[in-house]
């Protein structure tokens, strides 16, 4: 597993250029936000370090197996619940975030 580079910054630095900070996070940096030189929050990417295949790629691969080997892969018994969990994890909320 590859170590993540870490950047430390103050709340003021974060507030001054949030867009640049989020760009760093997307590049793989872990950003530690500090208040009076004490860590109060950590920002890091929520995406997995190794992305999975697209569904279209999985279908094409299954079709290639069937065409070349005469049989298609059979999903395990947890496949449907794994797919649903993936859908649920990426589903956007229909409700806008609450404002203070």
Radius of gyration: 21 Å
Kindly estimate the percentage of residues that lie in beta strands according to DSSP. Answer: 15-25%
Strand count, sense and barrel status of the largest sheet are: 3 strands, mixed
The SSE string, one letter per element, is EHHEEHH
Count, helices: 4
Secondary-structure-derived class: alpha+beta
* Straight-line distance between termini: 40 Å
DSSP strand tally: 3
Total count of domains: 2
Shape: elongated
CATH architecture of the largest domain: 3-Layer(aba) Sandwich
Low-confidence stretches: none
Mean pLDDT over the residues: 82
Helix content: 40-55%
Placed side by side, the strands forming the largest sheet appear as 1-2-3
Q: What would the CATH topology of the largest domain be?
A: YefM-like fold
CATH class of the largest domain: Alpha Beta
């Amino acid at each position: 597993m590859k170590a993540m580079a870490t950047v430390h910054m103050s709340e003021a630095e974060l507030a001054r250029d949030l867009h640049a900070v989020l760009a760093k996070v997307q590049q793989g940096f872990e950003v530690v936000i500090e208040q009076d030189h004490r860590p109060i929050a950590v920002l890091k990417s929520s995406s997995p370090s190794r992305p999975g295949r697209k569904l279209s790629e999985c279908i094409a691969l299954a079709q290639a197996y069937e065409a070349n080997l005469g049989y298609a892969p059979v999903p395990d018994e947890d496949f449907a619940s794994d797919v649903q969990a993936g859908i649920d994890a990426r589903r956007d909320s229909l409700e806008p975030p609450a404002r203070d």
